[in-house]
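Feature request, filed as a ticket because there's no other form

It would be nice if the structure record came with a short human-readable summary line next to the C-alpha cells. Right now we just get the raw output. Example of a typical job, pasted below so the devs can see what we mean:
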Amino acid sequence: MRPQIRSLLRNYSFLLNKHSNNGIKQAEVLNRFIYPSYQGIRMMSSSERSNDPLNLTTDKSNYEATAGTMKDVKLKIIEKMGLQFGYNPLQHTREHLVQYTPKSIDELPPRSMQDSFTSAIIPLSTDVKLREKYVGFLGSLRVGRLMEDMDLFAVWVVHQHVLVPNLEPGIPLPYTFVTILVDKIDFTEIDGKPDADIRLSGHVSWVGKSSVEVVVWLEQRRTGKWRKITRALFLMAARDPCNIKAAVVNPLVPGNDEEKRILEGGESRKKRRQAIQQFDLLKTEPNAYETKLIHDLFIKTIDTKSKAFNKRILPPGCIWMEDADLNNIIFSHPEDRNNHNKIFGGFLMRHALELSWALGYSFSKRRPKLEHISDINFIKPVDVSSLISMSAHVLYTELNYMEIVVIAEVFDPVSGSQSTTNSFYFTYSVADTLPQVIPKTYHEAIWYIDGRRKFRHIMDSAATP
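Raw output as currently delivered:
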C-alpha cells in the first residue's frame, strides 16, 4: 500500500474515533477531512507516487509542483490564516481563533513526512517581468531573492504538516508560524540562471512539542532536468494566533525506514544545537587551544624586544579586523512585511547576504563565491517602518576562504540606541589566498574565535560523507 494512503487511513481512524461521540457521521468525516487529501494524491504524477520523495538520494526530476507557483503559495497562506489583503497599520485581531488552538498533542493526529511534502515553481522561463527581480547586475541569479522564497516556502511546508481535526469549515488556521533560525544552507557547483524555472520542494524533517524543522530543496530546470542548487534547514516555531505563547503541533511519526533515518538526523541536529549553546562564548571562556591562539596573535603584532605592550604592529600579509567591515542603513516598508505586520525574515536574509557579498568583494578584490550560509538567528521581530542598521565583518580567513558575519539592529535615530535583531554567518571563497584577519582588542579576539569555530564546523560537516 502506498505510504501516503497509509497515512490517510491513520488520520481517518483517529478522526473517526475523535468525532463519533460528537454526532459527526462517517461520511462527513470523509468529506471534510479525508477526501480533499486523497484528491491531492490522485493529482500527483505516477512517477511521484511510485517513488519515495523523502529519499535524499532519489532523483526528483519528474516531480510536478503540487502547490503551483510561489505567488499561489503566498495567496494560499493568506487564505488559510484568514488574513487581510493590503496593508493596515492596525492589524485585524485574531483573538477569536485562540479557542480553536489545540491545548495538547493528544488532540492532534500523528503525521508522516510525506504528509507535508510539497513543491512550488518560480516561473522564470515564461514570466519576463518576474525575471527582473531575480537577475543580478552580472546577469546571474540573485541568491538573496531565493532566500526570501525559501523562508516563505518553509512556512507553507509547516502548513501541510499541521492538521487540526476539530476545526470547523471556514475557520482560519489558529496558529502563527515564525522562523527561529536557519541551521545550514549548502550550495552546489550549479550556477543559477535568471531565465530558467526554479522549483522549491520540501517536507518536515523533525518535530518537537511546538517547534518544526523543515528541509527545503532549491532546484533549477537545466537541459530538461531539475538540478539541485542548494538545500536549507529551517527551524520554525508554532505560536498561538496572537503570537503570544507556544502552540503544540502534530507529532511526527516516520512512515518508513528512510523517514526514520531522517527523523534521527533531526534529533542529532537538535542535540548539536544544544551542545553549541552550552559552549557559547558569551557563557564560557575559550578553550586552552583557542586561548593560546589569541596569545599567539597578540605576540605576532608587538615588538617583543621593546617590551612595549601598547604599540601594535600589523604583520605583512595581514589586515586589522576593524578595517574589514561594511555598514548600511535600510528603511523597511509595508511591502517588506510578513503576514503578521512584521518585517519578513527573508527580506532581512536577502539584504544581509548582499551586504556580506559586497564586503567580500571589497576585502578580497575578487568576486567571491558563496559556499555556505549557517547559523541565521532571528532574535527579535522587526516592526514595519523600522530603520535597520546592518554591519558586516570579516571575522576569520583561512587560505582562500573567509567567514563573514552580518549583524542586523533596529536603529533609533532619536536616542541613537540600537537593538540587535538578527545575526547571519556566510562562508565565501575566492581564487587567491586571502590576507589574515588580525584582532586588535580582546572583544575582536573573541569574535575571531567565534568566526573560526563557525568556519571549522562548516568545513568539517562538508567533509563528512
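Something like this underneath would help us a lot:
The longest strand covers residues 225-239.
Residues 257-278 form the longest helix (22 residues).
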